[in-house]
Amino acid sequence: MSTLKTIQVVAAVIVRDGKILCVQRAEHEREYVSLKWEFPGGKVEDGESREEALVREIREELAVDIEVSQFLMTVEHTYPDFQLTMHVFKCSLLEGEDVVLNEHVDMKWLPVA
What sign has the CA pseudo-torsion 52, 58, 61, 62? Predict the structure, then answer.
């Protein structure tokens, strides 16, 4: 019996003016993640705290700086070929920051329900 690789990731629930930023992934060879909507974020690298990883990933993906304000939850999900552990944080954009899509194909600011 094989054990699936576990990947530690972080995700940002970026709130601005009562709305939350959602981004759409680019096309991918793995159909189960291709063009899906998500909260931005990424993998935690060795030696990084979760908050440091989140600030770095958002800067790389969206060309903005964020303030990480609150841990929200940890979600675990099993994909066909790996196990994901995602740590989710509430964040805000620093003043005057405009999002640039460096890796995603679309974005939406959605109202908080």
Answer: negative
* pLDDT beyond 60 at 1: no
Tokens at residue 56, please? 């770095």
How do beta strands 83-93 and 106-111 pair? unpaired
Question: Which pLDDT tens digit goes with each residue over 62-93?
Answer: 999 999 999 999 999 998 889 999 999 999 99
What secondary structure does DSSP assign to 35-74, as a single string? T-EE-SEEEPPTT--HHHHHHHHHHHHHS--EEEEEEEEE
35-60 burial string, b = 16+ CB within 10 Å, else e?
A: eeeebbbbebeeebebbebbbebbee
